[in-house]
Amino acid sequence: MIGADVGVDTTSVIVDHLRQKVVAAKVYAPDELMELLRAELTEQLEGVGGGVDLDSLKPPAILLFVGVNGTGKTTTIGKVAGSLKRRSGRITLAAADTFRAAAIEQLQKWAERAGAEFIKHQRGADPAAVVYDAVESMRAGGKDFLLVDTAGRLQTYVNLMEELKKIKRVALRGAGDIPVKTLLVMDATTGQNGISQARLFDEALNLDGIILTKLDGTAKGGIALAIQRQLGIPIVAVGTGEQVDDVAPFSAAEFVEALLG
Prior knowledge:
It is a single chain. By secondary structure, the protein is of the alpha/beta class. It has one domain: Rossmann fold, CATH 3.40.50. 48% of the residues lie in helices and 16% in strands. The protein contains nine helices and eight strands. The chain has helices at residues 8-25, 30-46, 73-85, 103-114, 127-141, 157-175, 193-205, 223-231, 252-260; strands spanning 61-66, 91-96, 117-119, 145-150, 180-187, 209-213, 235-239, 247-249. Helix 7 (193-205) links the parallel strand 5 (180-187) and strand 6 (209-213). It is elongated, with a radius of gyration of 19 Å.
């Protein structure tokens, strides 16, 4: 479990709980012990309620995607847009990452693949202005879903967080009664650094959920257990590849099976 990035603290808590159950149930056989472990891990993951169910999300809604560069944020937005497009024909992507080279072009390609509308300003423009225009367009045009890409790296974390706070304030002011959800896109290979990363974003933006990416590689993604236990932020979806369909709602049972191999 430690090798799978569950972390020492969370592993210790789980093992202590498991030890108590083993004594109480008088379990001796290894296969019975594994069943108890599966149940314990699943219980830990299902203990955090709330979050965003992307499969049943009702329109209209605004989704702000945040996260550091390199996590697969823009690709994830494209995948989610494709998934939502199958339920609604009125999707808009907004390129509020105006700092990273080629970020606007990358998101535009995903918008074309998903059959979504696209809103952008020139590179280096005020990201909050992009969001303002996108929300106004959404309300005027009766769009169902607006998905917003944001910057993942400015000069410092302080600058990044302040920029993201401004973006969220603009979105909330313009949205009116339209719900605004904030999702952190996190690379499963991040390991224990993911806890501090998630804590920083949550303190600044009050996250509604985490999308865990790159589970198709060697990462076990055990950081999900640590994040949910320590921070109470639900994992709402996982990315497993580069294709437009390679995103799925988070399943605790399937995750545990993959974690235990």
